[in-house]
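Sequence of Conjugal transfer transcriptional regulator TraJ (Nitrosomonas ureae).
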Amino acid sequence: MIDKKNPKTIKKERRDKKLRVPVLPIEEAEIKSKATDVGLTVAEYLRNLGLGYQVPSIVDNRQVDSLLKINGDLGRLGGLIKLWLTNDKRTKLIGKSQLHLTLDSIRNTQSTMLDVIVKLKK
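Predicted 3D structure, token representation.
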């Protein structure tokens, strides 16, 4: 019996049947590339697709990691501004020019984050 939530549970049985699917060379390259992108063999990739399982996406995970990194950068920048605004003695030497540089850095980071989000939506 096949468990739709966990397709690997069927691995206990021996897979001795093979299917032949004719493809063009460009289709073969694309299938292999997509299987590699998600960290599966071609057989696992096609089996998952054919049985209606959701194929995991490593690319999406990389993009999420990028967003998390950018989010962390924004948090650190916000903390620096908060520290500057509280007139903490450690920030007495920070002038308006440094604040403007920090704000510019935040804007650049937001722009980078937006670019990553747009790529993620595609």
